[in-house]
Amino acid sequence: xxKNTSLHMKTLNKxxxxxxxxxxxxxxxxxxxxxxxxxxxxxxxxxxxxxxITQYVAAWFKYIGVSSDECRDWMNGYCVDVLSxxxxxxxxxxxxxxxxxxKYIFKSDVTFDCGCENNLFKACCEPSCPVYEExxxxxxxxxxxxxxxxxxxxxxxxxxGVGVERPPCxxxxxxxxxxxxxxxLNSAKKGIAQKDIVTLLNDxxxxxxxxxxxxxxxxxxxxxxxEDADISYKEKxxxxxxxxxxxxLNSAKKGVAQKDIVTLLNDxxxxxxxxxKWTYAVLHVELKKHGNADISYKEKxxxxxxxxxxxxLNRFKKGDAKKDIVTLLNDxxxxxxxxxKWTYAVLxxELKRHNAGEHT
Length: 360
Prior knowledge:
The chain is mostly helical. It has four domains: 130 residues, no CATH class; 62 residues; 65 residues; 52 residues. It is 61% helix and 0% strand. The chain has 19 helices and no strands. Helix 1 packs antiparallel against helix 5, helix 5 packs antiparallel against helix 6 and helix 9 runs antiparallel to helix 10. The radius of gyration is 29 Å and the shape is flat.
């Protein structure tokens, strides 16, 4: 057990309190102390994602009666420290994703259903677990339902007369399929994972266009078809985005700060590539795509840097010591050309650039 996992386990035990033995199931303890043990999976097997584990643990918190706020406070650290090992996302992305997943679990009707020894993560499972019998029965019932649906005989065709064609499956299930797709698309827009959407579709007994149970591959294919038919948001707003980016790049070349560019874009009702309002983060990403990553910190902080240097040079000419000038600059919250606090070394370098010479 690493220092991080040991700390998270200690915090978790403290949070649960007296009920730690009762509520800390073997699978949860295993995931907290070890994360996902990849050695338990063969090369051919698909491995669960960070999001899968996040939702699983969040569902457990919900099951044992821990609030969403307490869950989020603990999960943020755990996901960043432990689950980042199986994710390529940045820490800030992981925190944002964790918050979204917890919100989904606590607001939806998703319940904790581990599957016992058949759990998705191949985490430790013991018959002595306090919920083993309950979860085992849940798993058996779920498998029985799937089995019944899979092997249910086709109903006898109705005698609808000679020369009258029987409606094809696609037509027969078209109404409920449209409702299913409406639900799936709304769920996808909310950031719900496709695997969870599949579960929710089947729980609500929605059928595919051919009247069968939903599978991950089927949902993925249907969402792709819908994306092609819908032309996608990117194309829909492409012309407006190009005009917006032309405005952005011209403004940036003139030295306009990015925050001001965002304000101007929204004032002119320009939209992003997904038809939404502009934010600093979105602008930053778009500029990176255009090879202007932040148009460099030098431009971003240029105005206030020039004021800082004007102040520094005046104080220097009056005979103030450089160390005192550094203190005054930071007291007035002036920043360097890269947006950082002033130091003696930085000031000395900047004064040299202005040919102010050394003055000790």
